[in-house]
Amino acid sequence: MDASSVENDLVNILFTEEEILEKLEEMARRIEADYEGKELLVVGVLRGAIMVMADLSRALERHVETDWMAVSSYGSGTKSSGVVRILKDLDTDISGKHVLVVDEIIDTGLTLSWLISNLSSRAPASVEIATLLRKPEALAMPVTPKYVGWDIPNEFVVGYGLDYQERYRNLRCIGTLAPHVYS
Ligand code: PRP
């Protein structure tokens, strides 16, 4: 879906599809260099990370394994509930593997801080995070992603996997949601 289809719902467009793809290409080059000679398992965090996983993994000019986890940390609104549950676990045994967790946004950090601690207990060779977006002002838990696309203001953003009540995930760009949509 193009921004023109929902232009009244967006305050602005933060990143276009072209800018996102260019950023993921840059990230892919860094990942290739950092993991050269090592096997790599890329783990996407459902559901928001599907677009980043699709484009980042295809930008990598090397073999990777892929797997998915689904966790729940939010209710249907815009605020974190503080609760993390595994809805779908990995199909892969990660012991001895280099794991790169891919997500589209770090907001409070609750989800990924919990996930990294959970995955670290499974004896992987390493666990790192790649996130397209990070909100430094919202960060409440210690999370240190190895790869960050952009730091953004603490505003409600949608598109490219990011939803509001399951809408806007299929928007090609990332934009700031207009308050009239959620208030
Ligand atoms: C989003 C996003 C991150 C998390 C970030 O997922 O994909 O995993 O929130 O927020 P946090 O840093 O405050 O924990 P969400 O729980 O909305 O599920 P979804 O991916 O299915 O949209």
UniProtKB/TrEMBL annotation:
Keywords, sorted A to Z: Glycosyltransferase, Transferase
Name of the protein described by the UniProt record: Hypoxanthine phosphoribosyltransferase
EC number of this enzyme: 2.4.2.8
